Amino acid sequence: MKTSIVTTQLSSVAALALILAVSGVTAALSAQAVPECSMSVTLADWGENSTGDIDVASGASCQIPVGIRGTVTDSSISQKPSYGKLKKINATTFEYRAKAKYKGSDTFAIKATGKGPKASGTSVITVHATIK
User: Fold this and answer.
1) Cα–Cα distance between 57 and 89 in angstroms, integer?
2) 91: helix, strand or coil
3) Most CB within 10 Å of its CB: which of 15, 43, 107, 110?
């Protein structure tokens, strides 16, 4: 009798752990579901500045990769957006979220340092966002 009670309790604990694990995986997957921004940019080499344009829906977010060839050693936000939020995910990726109910334009800049096949240095990538 004690064995079946212990087995039932262990089964209940295992089922609860499985439910919590699946919930955590689902939350992690939804957190990673932010798409990459559709970006029009001509990136310069390391040590040269670039500009780019993105389109994003009001209240929506997208990820911006630092796409300069080579290795990114450091990055930061050098100009915050006025009508949205910019968050550093890691050295090579940032997430922009447009302000809800706002339609218009926004500008921000990302400063990145790295080394490529032909050059190394610090570059500033200025992004002009069109919020629809």
Assistant:
1) 20
2) coil
3) 110
Burial environment of residue 90 by CB neighbours within 10 A (0 to 12, 13 to 18, 19 or more):
exposed
Q: What pTM did the predictor assign?
A: 0.72
DSSP class of residue 81 equals -
User: How many angstroms separate the CA atoms of 41 and 26, rounded?
Assistant: 33
CA distance 113 to 98: 26
Residue pLDDT tens, the chain, 132 long:
555 444 444 344 333 333 334 444 444 444 557 888 888 877 788 999 999 999 999 999 999 999 888 999 999 999 999 999 999 999 999 999 999 999 999 999 999 999 999 899 999 999 999 999
> What order do you get walking across the sheet with 120-131 strand by strand?
39-41, 50-56, 120-131, 104-115, 71-79
CA–chain centroid gap for 21, Å, is 24
- Per-residue model confidence (pLDDT) at position 26: 41
| Local structure of 58: helix, strand or coil | coil
Chain mean pLDDT for the chain? 81
